[in-house]
Amino acid sequence: MDNVDDGSVITRQGLQCLLDALAQRGYTVVGPTVRDQAIVYEELARTDELPAGWTDEQDGGHYRLKRRSDEALFGYAVGPHSWKRFLHPPKVSLWQATRNGDELRFVPARDEPPRYAFIGVRACELAAISIQDRVLMGDEYADPHYRSRREQAFLVALNCSEAGGTCFCDSMNTGPDVKEGYDLVLTELLDGDNHLFLIRSGSEEGAEILAELPREPATEAHQAAATAVVEKTRSQMGRSMPQTAIPALLMDNLEHPRWDEVADRCLSCSNCTMVCPTCFCTTVEDTSDLEGVTAERSRRWDSCFTSDFSYIHGGSVRSSTRSRYRQWMTHKLATWVDQFGTSGCVGCGRCITWCPVGIDITEEVRAIHDDVSSRDKE
Amino acid sequence: MADDLMVPEPVRVLRRQQELATTWTLELESGQAGHRPFLPGQFNMLYIFGVGEVPISLSGDAGQTETLVHTVRAVGPVSNKLAALKPMDTVGLRGPFGVGWPMTAGEGADLLIVAGGLGLAPLRPAIYHVLRHRERYGRVILLYGTRSPDDILYAGQLEEWNKRPDIEVHITVDHASGDWPGKIGVVPSLVPTLDFDPEDTVAMVCGPEIMMRFTVNALRDAGVEDESIYLSMERNMKCALGHCGHCQFGSTFVCKDGPVLSFERVRGLLSLKEF
Amino acid sequence: MKNIAQIVCEHPFFHGLDGEFCDLVCGCARNVRFNPGEYLFHEGGDADYLYLIRYGQVALEIAVPGKPSVRFQTLHDGDLVGVSWVLPPYHWAYDARAITLTRAIAMDAHCLRKKCDDDPVLGYDVLKRLLPILTSRLHATQMQILDVYGAPEQPE
Question: Inter-chain contact A104–B88, Cβ cutoff 8 Å?
């Protein structure tokens, strides 16, 4: 029952009905909202919690919210949050151990995550989720915490109507149009006071829910308007990734002087890894009570930019910032392909925007690429 | 959750034996893990209550399933506690994990086993396996190098193996005082002195990374093919499942794709600084 | 029984040496034997001979005040003992002592140096045989200095 209804439009009221329908089915609805001068993902119940009339201005190391001239609900690019904070949470309790004399007992932590419904999942983010699917449940060792969240999640995707200053999904072939992996997909259509959403289903459950919503059949004009929205967005990309064989370029230039230049600017703060929707690294923390009766192990996000990350007895394998930046970027763009059959970058631009010194992954690739090609010509 | 491989199983310490000044061998009851036999070269994650967890290679005989043997050097908070365990103490165990030595790929070939320092521990299961299935392999040569005569791991066992006609044992130390009758010199320097058939040899190398690099150079100089040289790599491991990302070495997750890797796979990366 | 020319030219150090050259260097050679514990030479002594071990084990040692000598390398059948003979002022840099009964060929260093000086082609050939021994000892020394098996400075 694929795409049973591939041509409906709903109003903003219809969107509220969608949120209600999802809540009624037991989903915890999460979507974008304005908090602390940023658009973040939080639980929400009403469409007026969405960032109506807001957009964002993004550049290297720069993020500002600005008023729009219209009341668009999705008229901005991605913020600092990604859906990984719900599917692969920043901290998960793994187990508790209790000690009684010389007896030791391990009890897995109760992990009963909510069934999430995500509102406004952009194409780059769908790509990121599908990448994390491969990382965390792609082989015989599926991560049970990720899987239990992921398998129950309901995804309301969104065709982008606004590209940010750091967006480059078009050059990563991940967007701005949604292609697969969703339950429902929306395109926001604004024409003066006429505020509509073209909606299609991509799964059986999506079709069921769509059937419950007050809707009108989409006209050819609606379809054409939706196509125009995506094409306009495609033309607005603030950045682009050089179109070259990036894995070979990086792995053949592991000692390129550019790594030193970027290391001079990089603060090793790990912001890029925290905001990246595909970065998956974690570490574990062991704690125990003062009596030494119970101990707990939890897992939290970690970053390859920390000095502890590569620690083996005797020292850190990657002690310099140069080596850590190189590790992050070669993993993201090169070795990731060997490991998971896909690049680890989806072109969302978060690492550029949230880097305090504005390091730009596309610019770093371009610098090495241009230098190597100019040398080849000599 | 039964399939949660992050949750350890409590197992008892059965015996503890001092090997060297700061190195101890622990025999643990095999628990449920005993029902899943391990492969030479694999490792377990051992957890000390409230302190933490470390990867320790299995160093016993995979042919017996009653106990799990680990040789531990006391160097950090967890390994110090591990080394101080007494019989009937309990530790948390996860494993076995990882890809082991090429015991099948090595069948029919001559084996050159090169160990440095504590690197003999992860190789000992391979030696047990070879001696158990001696007919499957050609010549077997063990080269062992360590710091000084006082630092020879499993010294008694090496002596016994040395007496056997079906395995050649060569031991060398980096330095010694006057009463050491054996060889002195670094272990890679033994390779060119050997009379062996490099084209029909599978080499298994384990020791500090620098020792492995020098040894690989000596093996390649002697004519051993890159794809016939296997190393056991050490990297930071937290989950042992390829999920936490810590142990990455190029495109390799050392915990899941290794710890034993063919040199062909890490060629070019091994000598790269801070990779 | 082999004559000394055969023994010299079959020794790994001179293996494959041109026949004429072989005759030349054999003029500098004689058979020697050392009992266990006997010194081949001492640190600081004149490097008048180099030794090609035919059979046995020789330890290279450095005396440490107040402690037993530190042995840093052993040499065996087919190895060359002594490299200082080629470099002025021709003094040994360490002790060499037989650990087991050792049979060797002693080459008169004055004689060999003169023949190498007289015929640079021979001299270059001999140097090319010596250089790999020097570099491999350098590599071994690097690894020993690194003390790779030593306890790590920081905990896990």
Answer: no
Domain C4-146, CATH: 2.60.120.10
pLDDT in tens, B144-201: 999 999 999 999 999 999 999 999 999 999 989 878 889 999 999 999 989 999 999 9
Indicate the pLDDT class of residue A132, thresholds 50, 70 and 90.
Answer: very high
Contact B92 A104 (CB under 8 A): yes
CA distance to partner chain C, nearest, from residue B107 (Å): 31
Which residue of B79, B244, B253, B270 is the best one to mutate when testing the A interface, meaning the one whose CB has the most A CBs within 10 A? B244
Q: Max CA-CA distance within chain B?
A: 60
Question: Residue B143 falls within a domain, yes or no?
Answer: yes
* pLDDT per residue as tens, chain B (275 positions): 346 889 999 999 999 999 999 999 999 998 776 666 899 999 999 999 989 999 999 999 999 888 999 999 998 899 999 999 999 999 999 999 999 999 999 999 999 999 999 999 999 999 999 999 999 999 999 999 999 999 999 999 999 999 999 999 999 999 898 788 899 999 999 999 899 999 999 999 999 998 999 999 999 999 999 999 999 998 888 898 989 999 899 899 999 999 999 999 988 888 788 88
Complex confidence, ipTM = 0.88
Residue B143 sits in the same domain as residue B240: yes
| SS3 assignment, position B137 | coil
Domain ranges of chain A: 8-90+113-234, 246-281+305-377
Chain A CB within 8 Å of residue C147 CB: no
Q: Distance (Å, rounded) from C-alpha B74 to C-alpha B92?
A: 18
The alpha-carbon gap from C144 to the nearest alpha carbon of chain A, in Å, equals 17
Q: Is A354 on the interface with B (CB under 8 A)?
A: no
Tell me how far apart the alpha carbons of residues B174 and B32 are, in angstroms, rounded to a whole number.
41
Question: Smallest CA–CA separation between C150 and chain A, in Å?
Answer: 10
Whether B32 maps to a domain, the answer reads yes
Of B34, B65, B97, the domain-final residue: B97
| Distance of alpha carbon B98 from alpha carbon B206, whole angstroms | 15
Is B179 domain-assigned? yes
- Does the pLDDT of residue A140 top 90, yes or no? no
Give me the pLDDT at residue B1, please.
37
Number of A–B residue contacts, CB under 8 Å: 121
Assigned domain for B79 exists: yes
Judging by DSSP bridges, how do beta strands A184-191 and C95-98 pair with one another? unpaired
SS3 A26: coil
DSSP line for A184-196 = EEEEEEEETTEEE
Interacting residues of B197 by C-beta distance below 8 A, sequence separation 6+: B110
Average pLDDT over residues A204-222: 95
Q: A360 vs chain B: nearest CA distance in angstroms?
A: 22
- Contacts C156 to A, Cβ<8 Å: 311-313
Size of interface B-C (CB pairs under 8 A): 88
Asked if residue B168 and residue B53 are part of one domain, the reply reads no
Instruction: Give the per-residue pLDDT at A310.
Output: 87
* Partner-chain contact B49 A288, CB within 8 Å: yes
Helices (H), chain B: 77-83, 120-132, 155-163, 209-221, 263-266
Residues B249 and B114 in one domain: yes
Residue range(s) defining the domain that contains residue B50: 9-97
Q: Which of B75, B181, B211 sits opposite C155 (nearest CB)?
A: B75
Cβ contact, residue pair C156, A313, below 8 Å:
yes
d(CA B117, CA B61): 19
Q: Which of B91, B235, B244 lies nearest to residue A317, judging by beta carbons?
A: B235
Q: Cβ contacts (< 8 Å) between B184 and chain C: which residues?
A: 59-60, 71-74
CA–CA separation, A54 and A162 (whole Å): 11
Final residue belonging to a domain, choices B64, B97, B130: B97
